[in-house]
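Students often ask why inverse folding is considered easier than folding. One informal answer: many sequences map to the same fold, so there is more than one right answer. In these notes we will look at a single instance of the problem. The structure comes first.
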């Protein structure tokens, strides 16, 4: 589907409102043309010594028409914008739903602030085009044609002078067009950078305060802010050049018409009433031209925003072409010659990795930072797709399974816990949205969260602030564990779940994790090796390869990486 057809398709749910908007616009255009006609009739009547009664009647008719136009303009302004807002809301909903379906790689490459700009600023410009575009074209085109015919009827020579002004005005627009287009594009990009900078700074404001780096953040923000000012200055300079030049062209032609019309009167070729009506009607001809030229800028802004909207809408979604749905999972996991690298990297993160995990078994992944431990955890729920090799669960290749059925059986507890703004209940029940009160209370108890919740004035319905800002690290972690208890997955991934906690909190949470691991196949990425001594098997990952594997005792008995890491931590402890 072409971009134009795609854009027009968003009008379909609003056909009635769009039709009424166009009818109102048509009537406004007719009334606009009717004004100079009635004015000319009044002037001719007054100039020829006509009756005062007719002048009063024509004045009353003109006032009545203006009252009608007031109502029509109110309808256009209100309901036209309502239509634009509804279209904007529809696009925003589609964009949000699309974003939810995009793969991890998309978010690796796009900043949150810039995505937000596309959902707000860009769609606002699209909505403005959707509302004002059709009615502006309709009113301006009809008014321009009507005004040309009427002015030609009064005096075709003067009308021809006005027509000669049209290519000059469009020429001025074309002259400044490229400058304005580039300047507005740069301003839009600068605005996106500002949003990204603000989002980053607000999210990390506590880190900023902790390191007393407010001045540094202000300095970083000013870089984006100054870029926006420079870009906006260029845009405003181009706009000023366009509007001042186009207005000069209009003023120059007004002077020319004033002079030529005066000569026609002096030569007896034009009545004064007709001359006055013509001068009054000049704006009727000029206004729609300026409206059409301004629409060109609005069109560019709207199209630019719609193009950026379409870029995301056309972005490749997560591959979910699997046909097999897991009803249940025993937890037999196998990596066979798996090779993987991130799109932004030229080097393999995993190189021909093979490992087997039996149902109900707890295995640990250890090794130097950047070795590929977390990557293995991300590949199992298919957050990323492997290049070579095969990953199976219970003998089924996960590439052939549906994402929903696969991920519904996998629970993840990470070091960096993400909590949504809302209450403790909102975040715990994220693991099972239809959980009963008994199930929620049981999950909270198993996560060792019940004692903390009992101290809160509103209990489980206490607000936790953005990303759980009102909670400690241990409290956040226990909430994340509670929601995994509710999810009740067959496979559990613990990605350094306790590495950021103090010893007493770690002990409490380790108890909750030990209970969570019961009866589940567990993959534990560990920094503190003391927490994985009881693992059935430990895989040492380094440089994208499994360099050692075995039980804790087996690995300690060998002079290898694991023993070196363990002895180093033992000395530190």
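Output (designed amino acids):
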């Amino acid at each position: 589907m072409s971009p134009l057809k795609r854009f027009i398709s968003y009008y379909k749910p609003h056909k009635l409102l769009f039709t009424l908007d166009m009818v109102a616009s048509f009537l406004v255009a007719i009334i606009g043309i009717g004004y100079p006609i009635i004015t000319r009739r009044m002037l001719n009547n007054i100039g020829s010594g006509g009756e005062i009664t007719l002048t009063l009647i024509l004045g009353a008719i003109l006032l009545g028409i203006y009252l009608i136009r007031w109502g029509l303009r109110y309808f256009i302004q209100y309901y036209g914008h309502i239509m634009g807002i509804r279209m904007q809301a529809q696009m925003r909903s589609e964009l949000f739903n699309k974003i939810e379906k995009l793969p991890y790689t998309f978010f690796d490459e796009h900043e949150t602030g810039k995505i937000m700009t596309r959902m707000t600023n860009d769609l606002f410009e699209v909505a403005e085009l959707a509302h004002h575009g059709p009615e502006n074209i309709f009113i301006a085109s009809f008014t321009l044609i009507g005004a040309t015919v009427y002015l030609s009827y009064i005096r075709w020579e003067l009308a021809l002078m006005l027509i000669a002004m049209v290519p000059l005005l469009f020429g001025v627009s074309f002259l400044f067009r490229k400058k304005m287009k580039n300047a507005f594009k740069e301003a839009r990009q600068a605005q996106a950078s500002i949003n990204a900078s603000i989002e980053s700074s607000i999210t990390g404001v506590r880190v900023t305060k902790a390191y007393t780096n407010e001045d540094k953040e202000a300095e970083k923000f000013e870089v984006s802010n100054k870029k926006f000012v420079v870009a906006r200055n260029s845009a405003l300079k181009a706009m000023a050049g366009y509007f001042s030049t186009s207005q000069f062209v209009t003023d120059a032609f007004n002077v020319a018409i004033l002079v030529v019309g005066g000569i026609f009167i002096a030569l007896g070729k034009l009545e004064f009433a007709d001359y006055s009506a013509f001068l009054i009607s000049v704006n009727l001809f000029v206004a729609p031209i300026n409206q059409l030229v301004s629409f060109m800028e609005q069109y560019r802004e709207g199209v630019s925003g719609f193009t950026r909207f379409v870029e995301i809408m056309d972005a490749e979604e997560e591959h979910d072409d699997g046909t097999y749905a897991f009803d249940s999972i025993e937890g037999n996991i196998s990596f066979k010659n798996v090779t993987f690298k991130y799109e932004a990297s030229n080097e393999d993160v995993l190189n021909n990795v093979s490992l087997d995990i039996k149902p109900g078994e707890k295995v640990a992944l250890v090794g130097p930072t950047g070795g590929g431990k977390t990557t293995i955890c991300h590949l199992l729920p298919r957050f990323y797709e492997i290049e070579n090799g095969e990953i199976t669960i219970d003998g089924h290749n996960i590439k052939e399974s549906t994402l929903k059925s696969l991920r519904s059986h996998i629970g993840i507890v990470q070091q960096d816990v993400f909590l949504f703004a809302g209450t403790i209940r909102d975040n715990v029940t994220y693991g099972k949205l239809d959980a009963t009160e008994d199930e929620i209370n049981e999950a909270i108890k198993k996560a060792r969260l019940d004692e903390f919740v009992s101290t809160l004035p509103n209990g489980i319905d206490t607000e936790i602030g953005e990303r759980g800002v009102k909670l400690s690290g241990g409290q956040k972690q226990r909430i994340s564990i509670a929601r995994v208890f509710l999810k009740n997955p067959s496979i559990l991934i613990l990605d350094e779940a306790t590495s950021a906690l103090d010893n007493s909190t770690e002990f409490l949470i380790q108890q909750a994790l030990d209970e969570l691991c019961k009866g589940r196949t567990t993959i534990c990425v560990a920094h503190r090796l003391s927490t994985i001594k009881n693992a059935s098997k430990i895989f040492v990952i380094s440089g994208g390869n499994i360099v050692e594997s075995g039980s804790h005792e087996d690995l300690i008995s060998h002079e290898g990486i694991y023993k070196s890491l363990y002895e180093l931590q033992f000395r530190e402890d």
